[in-house]
Amino acid sequence: MFSCGSLNYKLKISGAGNFKLLKTPELTLASDIEKYDPKIADNLKETENGVSGNREYNYLLIPRHEGVYKLAPLKFSYFNPVSKKYVVLNTEPYELKVAKGDPGANVTAFAKGGQQDVQELEKDIRHIKTSPSGLSVPADGFYGSTGFFFALIAGPIAFLLALGYRSWYRNYTKDEVEVKGRKASKLAAKHMANAQKQLASGDAKVFFEAVYKGLYGYLADKLNISAADLSKEIISEALVKRAIDPLVIREVEETIDLCEMARYAPMSGVSQPEVLEKAKRIIKNIENA
């Protein structure tokens, strides 16, 4: 072969065992031979008896100078479980004869003896340029520009905004009673949506249960009354203290009574859609009061 040409050196290890624990064999080469990391290809098969097959290492070698080189044999050792001994295998040594590369080849060749016979070709490494040749550092134009000063003040501004938001959020959520009151309508809306679903399915008992839970849960959170103390009388008193319209209070009492009766005994002559709309209207009126 010729100098600066490429050579593929393949090594295949076959047998049965734990191929994943194999270490990549190290080639001992002359300094004039350039070596690249090998490409590893596995052809393995897993059975009940273990893993068997082969692993192939493909090394790319490039001799840079003409001459005769010896590729030392590779040693490979493994433990034989049958003989219960370590076995060492050696490959055959190889002799590589390298002639001087073709002057017209698209490579950079070096003559033997250290004299550099450099040729600059179309796709080869070229000489290092010593003149600036119009090159510039892209970051030079950024310093002192509008974008530079914007980036400089963006950090402190973002920090102050985050600090202000944290202060606002702490004040907004510090009163648990107010937080529960603000979330009351959202939780009630979920129960009303479930009631709407049960209305469509025709399950009257589950429908009235959903309306009852939605209205009771909303009033408990909105009026800050614990579930243990919650009753129709206490709800009415709390609504009176909040100056809620007496008509709305009466609708609350009627709807709670109706839902309690419908939960335990079938009722006729009651329009379920009207009950649902009435419950929604009660929540809306209390929210707007």
What does the secondary structure layout of this molecule look like, with pairings?
Elements: E1 7-16, E2 33-35, E3 39-47, E4 50-63, E5 67-71, E6 75-80, E7 85-90, E8 94-98, H1 146-173, H2 176-201, H3 204-222, H4 232-241, H5 246-264, H6 272-288
Antiparallel strand pairs: 1-4, 2-4, 3-4, 5-8, 6-7
Helix pairs in contact: 2-3, 2-6, 3-5, 3-6, 4-5, 5-6
Structural commentary:
By secondary structure, the chain is α+β, with helices and mostly antiparallel strands. It has three domains: 7-98, no CATH class; 143-173; 176-288, Four Helix Bundle (Hemerythrin (Met), subunit A). The protein is built from six helices and eight strands. The chain has helices spanning 146-173, 176-201, 204-222, 232-241, 246-264, 272-288, and strands spanning 7-16, 33-35, 39-47, 50-63, 67-71, 75-80, 85-90, 94-98. The strands form three sheets. Strands 1, 2, 3 and 4 form a four-stranded antiparallel sheet that branches. A hairpin with a 4-residue loop joins β6 and β7. α2 runs antiparallel to α6 and α5 (246-264) runs antiparallel to α6. The radius of gyration is 43 Å and the shape is elongated. Residues 106-122 have low confidence and may be disordered.
